[in-house]
């Protein structure tokens, strides 16, 4: 009697393997709350682009948006223990932080601009155009060039663009990628230093 052949083990299908699922954002945030840096690194990779997009939509300025993104992700690392998965998803919680921080930045920037403008309005220096005319009318151009060397680089660039390049203050601000009140302040301070250097009476 012939015994049945043993099954060919080589032909048997390999045991099925279940691929590990990626942790959810909620899991990563909870792990971050426990101080797990690797979890935070994964959470950063997953959500930072969305944080930047939220900040950019509010601020319109890429530099401010990038700064807010870093601030928000740092806040996530520091305050992850406050996250409650029963109240919101991890993405919603983080994007809410991003929106609030971006709105705070808008208010801070606006407040600074208003303070700068009030400071400019409250000063009793001669108008910019009057000072520029005194400098050009009463002193030789050679002395002006010498005195330009006493200005800071930012003051000199702003003054040259505005009074020797014929650009408006807004054009100067755009070329220097600086806020308009800051540019006005640089021009004012630069012209006053020029006047003092050249000996033009106030």
Automatic annotation (TrEMBL):
<feature type="domain" description="RNA polymerase sigma-70 region 2">
    <location>
        <begin position="43"/>
        <end position="108"/>
    </location>
</feature>
<feature type="region of interest" description="Disordered">
    <location>
        <begin position="1"/>
        <end position="24"/>
    </location>
</feature>
<dbReference type="InterPro" id="IPR013249">
    <property type="entry name" value="RNA_pol_sigma70_r4_t2"/>
</dbReference>
<keyword id="KW-0731">Sigma factor</keyword>
<dbReference type="Pfam" id="PF04542">
    <property type="entry name" value="Sigma70_r2"/>
</dbReference>
<protein>
    <submittedName>
        <fullName>ECF RNA polymerase sigma factor SigK</fullName>
    </submittedName>
</protein>
<dbReference type="Pfam" id="PF08281">
    <property type="entry name" value="Sigma70_r4_2"/>
</dbReference>
<dbReference type="InterPro" id="IPR039425">
    <property type="entry name" value="RNA_pol_sigma-70-like"/>
</dbReference>
<dbReference type="InterPro" id="IPR007627">
    <property type="entry name" value="RNA_pol_sigma70_r2"/>
</dbReference>
<dbReference type="InterPro" id="IPR036388">
    <property type="entry name" value="WH-like_DNA-bd_sf"/>
</dbReference>
<dbReference type="InterPro" id="IPR013325">
    <property type="entry name" value="RNA_pol_sigma_r2"/>
</dbReference>
<dbReference type="InterPro" id="IPR014284">
    <property type="entry name" value="RNA_pol_sigma-70_dom"/>
</dbReference>
<dbReference type="InterPro" id="IPR013324">
    <property type="entry name" value="RNA_pol_sigma_r3/r4-like"/>
</dbReference>
<dbReference type="GO" id="GO:0003677">
    <property type="term" value="F:DNA binding"/>
</dbReference>
<feature type="compositionally biased region" description="Low complexity">
    <location>
        <begin position="1"/>
        <end position="11"/>
    </location>
</feature>
<keyword id="KW-0805">Transcription regulation</keyword>
<dbReference type="GO" id="GO:0006352">
    <property type="term" value="P:DNA-templated transcription initiation"/>
</dbReference>
<dbReference type="GO" id="GO:0016987">
    <property type="term" value="F:sigma factor activity"/>
</dbReference>
<comment type="similarity">
    <text>Belongs to the sigma-70 factor family. ECF subfamily.</text>
</comment>
<feature type="domain" description="RNA polymerase sigma factor 70 region 4 type 2">
    <location>
        <begin position="142"/>
        <end position="194"/>
    </location>
</feature>
<keyword id="KW-0804">Transcription</keyword>
């Amino acid at each position: 009697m012939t015994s049945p052949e043993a099954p060919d083990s080589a032909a048997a299908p390999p045991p099925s393997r279940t691929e590990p699922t990626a942790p959810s954002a909620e899991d990563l945030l909870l792990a971050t709350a426990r101080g797990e840096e690797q979890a935070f690194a994964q959470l950063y990779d997953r959500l930072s682009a969305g944080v930047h997009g939220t900040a950019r939509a509010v601020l319109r300025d890429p530099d401010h948006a990038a700064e807010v993104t870093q601030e928000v992700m740092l806040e996530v690392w520091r305050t992850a223990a406050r996250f409650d998965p029963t109240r919101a998803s991890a993405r919603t919680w983080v994007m809410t932080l991003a929106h609030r921080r971006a709105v705070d930045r808008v208010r801070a920037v606006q407040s600074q601009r208003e303070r700068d403008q009030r400071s400019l309005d409250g000063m009793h220096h001669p108008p910019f155009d009057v000072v520029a005319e005194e400098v050009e009318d009463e002193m030789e151009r050679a002395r002006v060039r010498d005195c330009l060397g006493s200005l800071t680089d930012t003051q000199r660039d702003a003054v040259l663009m505005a009074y020797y390049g014929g650009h408006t203050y807004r054009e100067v601000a755009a070329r220097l990628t600086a806020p308009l009140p800051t540019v006005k302040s640089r021009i004012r301070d630069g012209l006053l230093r020029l006047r003092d250097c050249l000996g033009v009476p106030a």
